[in-house]
Amino acid sequence: MNERNRIELRNSSIIDTHIHIAQNTLFNKKEWNNATMESKINWLSKILKEYKRNNITALRDGGDGIFASCLTREVARKEGITYRTPIFAICKKEHYGSFLGRAIYGIEDFKREFTILKENKLDHLKIILTGIVNFNQFGDVGEVAFTYDELEYMVKSAKEYGVPIMVHANGREGVSAAIKAGVDTIEHGFLISDKELYGMAEKGIYWTPTLSPLGNILDAKDSNFKQQLDIIREVYTIQVNNIVKAYELELKVTLGSDAGAYRVSHSAGIFDEINHFINIGFSKDTVLKICFENGSSVLKI
């Protein structure tokens, strides 16, 4: 998106429903762990001020393993930004996602980690249910990491505590399990079918399709993925078509950029996401309405 269009959009109040504050160009895990509290606050303030400058008024984090998003919530209050965090994500040991939080084997491990999350006043529970899109093998998103009983227990625990459930899931099997368990939002949701779209619509589950990570690679014709661009384009096209169907079904879609991911910058990422939606054929006004209204609902503003 060019700067002129971005400036025009700054007049609207914008919500990014999927970011990772700990993934940025200012610090890495080692630097964070060795830093003073003053340095940490300065880093986070710098990122948040850029969001604020672009009139991005609310953010929902997907978790990290260094408690950066937990501290960010405090800093965001001072900046006048609404910020929601799961503190850290829950994933299965020996599966994708440990860099976003804590890896567990089963329910007993979850009980221990959930106690820590409650002590830190999580805003939502983040569960990583599957892997990510494999750019080298079309259709591969990794296996479903948790058994249905494990997933159901975690969802029930979060609901009893009174927080929503944000689930990273790709592929038909993983997304179907998340729908059945009654989660609140499904993140990414690549390579799903009409059945899953209908399921989300019927249960009132919000979908955050995160077009920017793949879309930005395609727009840049990224030479790092020269051999994978055809698969990336195919997966992206399926996602775009599913978003159009979702809108027709009145499925509640939210705009989340996955800021912090490769080629998705903090603050700029949500404008990329808006632009991808506009390129699908949605009007700017429709996209901004989806962004604000559905984003407000998901963040319970």
SSE topology sketch:
Elements: H1 3-9, E1 14-19, H2 29-34, H3 37-53, E2 56-61, H4 68-79, E3 82-84, E4 89-92, E5 101-104, H5 107-119, E6 125-128, H6 148-161, E7 165-169, H7 171-181, E8 185-188, H8 194-203, E9 206-208, H9 212-220, H10 229-248, H11 268-280, H12 284-298
Parallel strand pairs: 1-2, 2-3, 4-5, 6-7, 7-8, 8-9
Helix pairs in contact: 3-4, 7-8, 9-10
Pfam families: Amidohydro_1
Organism: Clostridium tanneri
Protein name: Amidohydrolase family protein
Could you describe the 3D structure shown?
This protein is of the alpha/beta class. It has one domain: Metal-dependent hydrolases (TIM Barrel, Alpha-Beta Barrel). It contains 12 helices and 9 strands. The chain has helices at 3-9, 29-34, 37-53, 68-79, 107-119, 148-161, 171-181, 194-203, 212-220, 229-248, 268-280, 284-298; strands at residues 14-19, 56-61, 82-84, 89-92, 101-104, 125-128, 165-169, 185-188, 206-208. The protein has a 4-stranded parallel beta sheet with strand order 6-7-8-9. The chain has a 3-stranded parallel beta sheet with strand order 1-2-3. Helix 4 (68-79) links the parallel strand 2 and strand 3. Helix 3 (37-53) packs across helix 4 (68-79). The radius of gyration is 18 Å and the shape is globular. The mean pLDDT is 96. Residues 14-301 form the Amidohydrolase-related domain. This is Amidohydrolase family protein. InterPro entries: Amidohydro-rel (IPR006680), Metal_Hydrolase (IPR032466), Metallo-dep_Hydrolase (IPR051781). It holds the Pfam family Amidohydro_1. It comes from Clostridium tanneri.
